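Holo prediction — magnesium ion.
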Amino acid sequence: MSERILLLALRGRDAPVLEQLLGRSGYDCHRCSSGDALADEMAAGAGAALVTEESLAETDRHGLARWLERQPAWSDFPFILLATKRSGRRPQSALHRLEQLGNVVVLERPIHGETLTSAVASALRGRRRQYEAERQLNALAAAEESLRQLNATLETRIGQRTVELARANDQLMQEIAERERAQAALVQSQKMEAVGQLTGGIAHDFNNLLTVIGGNLELIQRRATDERISRLSDFALQASDRAAKLTRQLLAFSRTQRLTLTPVDINGLIQGMTDLLARAIGPTYEIAIRLDPRDLWAMADANQVELAILNLAINGRDAMPDGGGLTIASGCEAASSQSGLRPGDYVVVKVSDTGTGIPKALLDRVFDPFFTTKPMGKGTGLGLSQVYGIAQQSGGTVRIDSVEGRGTTVEIWLPVARALEASVAVAPVAAGRRKGPLERVLVVEDDAGVRRFIVECLEMLGYGVTEASHGREGLERLAEARPDLLIVDFAMPGLNGVEVINAARAQAPDLPIILATGYADMEAVHKVIDPERVLRKPFQIDDLERAVRTAIGEGARGTVGAD
Ligand SMILES: Nc1ncnc2c1ncn2[C@@H]1O[C@H](COP(=O)(O)OP(=O)(O)OP(=O)(O)O)[C@@H](O)[C@H]1O
Ligand SMILES: [Mg+2]
């Protein structure tokens, strides 16, 4: 902002005198040679003008008047007029000239230097306030302009913001839904885990009881000469077989049962079941088999998969009391990253029916053990639990899709067997020949009933038997006299079966061993014993006999290289 003092003093030495005087007080002065020159300098920027009255009278004032009229709203340019000495009043024309200037201070001559500088200072102060007003007006105008622009774009910005908010809200809702889904899945899997543990424990106790009940019934049957007793024990045996089947399903669900995971040709397995399915389902139902044309090998337990398909087919039949269609299909699918499965390819067996479907509210419960909607005696609620258990334990999963009134599809996903695994043939175990009556078996079993049954059977089969009721005692008996075979239970107080096997191997590395169990930490078991040397409880006399013969036969082959 310019603070120049413009001088219009055309007569004599007025201009240099004034310039010198003001220059001493530090003012920046500029002399003008006419009214127009003064107007040009005012336009260029100045703080005030010092004008002698006679110069104003003599010069052309048009340019000056025009500039003063057009000066901006904030500006009221200050003049200091040095009056011409005169005796009377100012004539009208002189007054008119003063009026034209507007913001003017008139100083009479002769004039004291201090009066002049103080008048100039006050004119400049006034001019500064005008500059300040200009600054504020400009700021106000700028603020108004930006407000105007803001208003003009407000609608668009509100629109954009709304879209952004809606997008954020959508994302939030998706995340909430995803979290709820994950939480529900977690709760479901924790529930299944807890129920699985409980069921596994119960099944273990039942296995021991059923081994004793079934085994002794068989012994009675073999010894009975009375036809009636033989028939009665047969009924009882059938019931104990059914109970054993239930226990097997419980174990499959609790995932503590040992699965024999080998490469299974799923298409072949389904084809091999067609007769069985037709018989189980009955002639009123149409069974469509749709097999994938490719070879599908899954890592699974063939017997358990058969049982699972049979369970699903029976469920399908039960859901179609008035007849309908059952479809069993096979295929191969890749697991997505959200599926909770290990990434890779899975063989999928789909069993679909056109039956009643399952109400949405019940879908979460159908895999629970003992959940059934069937009348007493019709369903135990263990079918889908078995399917769930074996799928999980094989490293796969089960999916169910059901629409009320339309039907249900259950999918069993099983991991694909790698080519190498599939090419390894599973050699059947040849039953060995019994060596002779002198062979001795050491039986280590804590459950007195089961132990007595095993001993009884072995004696009946012509073996010599040594018994031990716990692991430590078993190892002592082993140290006293080496038997031809060791049969050991898995779940025992003190040393468990695996620990007994490890200690026995240290004493007698070639000793044939059979582990009898229905419930075990299978990973630990597999580390110490061949799966073929595991005898599943409850077992029948035939199973025991076969296992003992094979083990002793192989042991003899291993030691003498014969047979
Ligand atoms: N295909 C299906 N269509 C309609 N409902 C079904 C189907 N499969 C299962 N369900 C429902 O799920 C329940 C549980 O099935 P699950 O196979 O576990 O037991 P269950 O068939 O009742 O008895 P179990 O199989 O032990 O004899 C059934 O009672 C039935 O309500
Ligand atoms: Mg069922």
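READOUT: The two ends are 121 Å apart (CA to CA).
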